[in-house]
Amino acid sequence: MEYFVSLSETGRIVILKGIRDNLNIKKGDFLLIQKKEPGFLAVYTEDKIPDKIKNEFDMIERIFKERFRVRTPSLNYKRVENNYRIFIPRSCRIFSSIENFRYSKKKKVLLILRSQEYFEIWSKEYYNLLFKKVLDGMKKGEKKY
Question: Full-prediction pTM beyond 0.85?
Fold first, then answer.
């Protein structure tokens, strides 16, 4: 399932009803935002975080808290606000090409529901570019995209 939403000027997106219903997201729940490959973010509900990520997050957060007193740069916990919005940290917005360093204007964001475990946040422009690349590769008969 794919949904388009706008990124607000404050860096928030609305989690739409289709995604909320499929993942059982409620107001006040915590979501884990993970920087995946450049171009998109994966968002997990607290009870669906894979063990590998949970162990990595716990270990990295403990080390960072002890030594640097900051949060791990690749994983962020965020609370779902009352109006079902979630704040996307600036480093995540830049990493996923939703926002770049030079300007900060409203952009369309693509939310893709992946199974019953998580959803992805993509920049609409980046997703379309990647999709076009794959189609062009398929037309040329390339095996690697």
Answer: no
